[in-house]
Amino acid sequence: MKAMQQLDSLTLKHLAAELNEMLAGSKINKIQHLTGPEFLLGFWGARMDRRQRLYINVGPEIPCCFLSSAEEVETFVVPTLEKPTGLCMLLRKHLNSAQVISVKTLPGERVLNITLENFNELGNRIRLILSLELIGKYSNMLLIDDLPNVILGAAHSVSEAMSRKREIAFGLPYVAPPVPEGKQLLFLATVDDLKRTLANLDINHVEFLLKTLQATYWGMAPSMLLSLLKQAQTACLDKEKDYFYDDLYRLIDQAEAGQDLHPYISYDHQQFGLFPDVEAETDNRLEYPSVQTMMVHYVTHHLTQKRVTERKQRFKQALNRQKKRLAKRQADQKPVASSEIDRLNHYGNLILSGVSSKALSGTATEESITMTDYLTQMPIQISVKPRLSWVDNAQLYFKQAKKERIRQQRYQAVETKITQENDYLDSLLCHVDQAETLADLLTLRDDLLLAKVLKEKRTLSRKSKDKKPKKPALSGILERMSSDGMKIRVGKSGQANAELVGRLSKPEDLWLHVHERPGSHVLVQTEKQPVSDQTLLEAASLAVYFSSARLDKNVPVIYTPVRYIKKIPDSYPGHVNYREEKTVFITPDPALIARFLNETLPASS
Q1: What is the pLDDT at residue 279?
Q2: 189: which residues sit within 8 A by CB, 6+ positions away?
Q3: Are 22 and 47 in contact (CB under 8 A)?
Q4: DSSP codes, 300-320
Q5: Mean pLDDT across 10-32
Q6: 393 vs 380: CA distance, rounded Å
Q7: pLDDT in tens, 227-282
Q8: DSSP 8-state class, residue 482
Q9: Where are the strands (E) in 468-527, listed by range?
Q10: Can you tell me the distance from the alpha carbon of 224 to that of 272, in angstroms, rounded to the nearest whole number?
């Protein structure tokens, strides 16, 4: 996956202006620490929607902040902290019910300061600053007491040994991040400054102009500065050179003031900006009405993809480890051949036949005897126990044969269990590989816990033990309508498959599954109506698409009424026996699958 574009100071400045309009005057009423670098702040009052949350990420990969609903945050964040951390408790102590005064950035810096007012323990009004330093790998979040300019807490402490320029720790004076040495802030440059800097350069070579400006000024991302240079170059065609400097200065001034902004994201979601490249095609980007909306879409897309990929890799590694353990367990099994059981019984019968024919009498005196095998008429040597009667020696062979038969039965039971578990792991691997959202993977996590592939985190909370477990909500099931108006349900996890062949189905419904391949159960709810060939084709196509045979051709799909489906006792979820099945061969139509995936049916309970 390609690296995400970092938030630049100009975009952050205009984002802060939009946040200021929405947050100024509101009060903080909720503070959550989601994961190590991720926080969530809730507000009420002013122009705030109570469902909105300020998402803050001070991690090194994509430091950012924006307003989003709690439901949207759940699509790309999985909270990992069960208890409030020390930093979270500190923020709650100082910021709970604090009123937002302003949201601003430091000039030219990727630092967003939320200024707040609150009351201390003595009832005195105090001013605090929640400073979000969104500076790549140096990103941080600091809580500052404004009047004495003292740091009250930080997401990441920085010692003197870690940085010679700036220490960050409780009780130290706050110092702003250092600015680039030997450079001037671009937004403070005049037209004459630009002329002196670019005097000896050809204005037609924007790459050289960009490098020169970057060496002299700071405060704007290279991609955005390049876009302004191209706009200025286009505007001054067939004009004197001085017009270029005037246009460039005007464009920089407008960009800093937030005039004529066109927030956009490229179609491949690899780039965002405030003013598109004049040479780029408009069809290659998506424009947004505000910087806030642009950042929400850009960050959520990348964080969702990143976390889905990470969780997929984690689940696959856990599943493959479990499969290796099963393979080792299977290799350690010692099979018992039926021929060995037959041999032991045959030896016992030979001894008894000798006793009945009076060829053997009394007790054994030797450790072996030679007898004629009545099946082959050939001599055969049999080991016996001296000082035991011949009948007792025969019973020893029968007992040993019985033990071997029990061992064989146990071996076969273990083999069956291992085969079933391995099939279930293959099915889970298929579901994990085809999962597209965090919600899908969270549903599969329950299956992995059930299969003991993952371990449940221990909790020290006593309250959780006293509470009755909640009935799990219906999840992991895709619902669509066929062309003939029949509801089609697809299970995207083991538990969902079990639900489909369990409480969600009726005897007259139609069940489908790819033959002898890992995949999803598909259920057509017929409402006692005949299933048309078109509905059968669509349901079978979905069965193939949500299986390990997704890319194959002429895939056999079996189908039968649910009345002929029977769950296998003591087996994994969704493991069934079936009869009276029929088979249809399917090569999925991409257009048909695309239509079904884009249509959403409201989920029912």
Answers
A1: 57
A2: 197, 217, 249, 252
A3: yes
A4: HHHHHHHHHHHHHHHHHHHHH
A5: 94
A6: 16
A7: 899 888 887 766 667 788 889 999 999 999 998 899 999 888 888 999 876 655 55
A8: -
A9: 477-481, 487-491, 510-514, 522-525
A10: 10
Which residues are CB-neighbours of 182 under 8 A, at least 6 positions away?
A: none
Least confident of 487-501, 533-547, 587-601: 587-601
- Residues 203-217: tens digit of each pLDDT: 888 899 999 999 999
- Phi and psi torsions of 52, nearest 5°: -75, 145
pLDDT of residue 31: 95
CB atoms within 10 A of CB 8: 20
- List Cα–Cα distances, 309 to 478, 496, 531, 549, 597, in angstroms: 21, 22, 38, 21, 20
Spell out the residues 6+ positions from residue 454 whose beta carbon is closer than 8 angstroms to its own: 315, 318, 445, 448
- Token couple for 482: 């066929």
Which of 488, 467, 469 has its CA nearest to residue 478? 488
Distance, in Å, from the CA atom of 264 to the CA atom of 286, rounded to the nearest integer, reads 5
For the beta carbon of residue 515, count every other beta carbon within 10 angstroms: 15
- The secondary element (H helix, E strand) that includes residue 290 is none
Instruction: Return the residue matching tokens 């001034």.
Output: 253
Looking at residue 202, its pLDDT comes to: 85
**Pairing between β-strand 140-145 and β-strand 125-133 as defined by DSSP bridges:** antiparallel
What token pair was written down for 197?
């800097």
Half-sphere exposure of 251 (CA within 13 A, CB side): 24
217-218/272-273 β-pairing: unpaired
Percent of the chain with pLDDT over 90: 58
CB atoms under 10 Å from CB of 311, counted, come to: 19
Token reading at 128:
């605090």
The structure tokens listed for 160 are 């003197």
